[in-house]
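Structure ticket #2291
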Amino acid sequence: MSLDVPLAFAAFAIGIVVGLTGMGGGALMTPVLVLFFGIQPLTAVSSDLVASAIMKPVGSLVHLRRGTVHLGLVKWLCLGSVPAAFTGVIIARSLGGGEKVQEIIRIALAIALLLAAAGLMVRAYIRLVEHARERDGRAEPLPQGRPRVEVRPIPVLLVGVLGGIVVGMTSVGSGSLIIIALMALYPRLKASELVGTDLVQAVPLVTSAALGHVMFGDFQLGLTASLLVGCLPGVWVGAHLSARAPGGIVRRALGFVLLASALKLLDVSTRNTGLILLAIAILAPLLWMVVRRRHGFPAIAWGRTAHD
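Resolution: structure written out below.
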């Protein structure tokens, strides 16, 4: 088993992004493996999930010690996501073999990336609205200490099931799609509580999906080892940079990369991909300035960190 040095460096860079934002692990790693290293989609998903299963518990323990985890939400999410993630792997394998299943996984991955990119925009808008309500004194007081919210089992269970299937098939969603759903269902949770709850529920979710891929997917030990060699120190560096980095810029860049990856996975030509990204790069900042002004904020935010 030899170390793939270029792959380890790529994993290090992605690990920094994950440490900065708490998002982007599977959403960046899997398309990088497919698009830049020529790895088959199912193999990329399998190896990325096993690497994530090893990395996730580290951050989870930190949040458990700080008390920023709603264990009631974790319980209902896991009841839906753990069996659904394993089922997602079986669904992927039952779709066929060889090039057929690789093509289906590639398209499913592209759709998941588009959803993740859209989720980043929704997340930013929800936070902007929350800041506006707090500024105007219209927001309900946030709970102090441990989060106290009334758990709605059925919606949370459904979020877990849908998230589990997506993660099992594509490796995308445990740190992006599910946290967006939690923000919509429980707007009174603090940002740290959302991240902590999402991170803890992701441990059994990703472990279930990883186990399924080890058994039925296309797991490769050497590939996973190279990912871990890069990702683990990258996450550590990113976490230490997060207090000083402009988080808004990092998340916008992440959304841009997710969209570009999705377009290439859908076989959009390089020319058309470039035109789409150029149009978004010009129009999106202008639209966001208008949205900020409509909520009473200056068009351009200054001095925000990665957690704002």
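Closing remark: The chain has one domain: 5-294.
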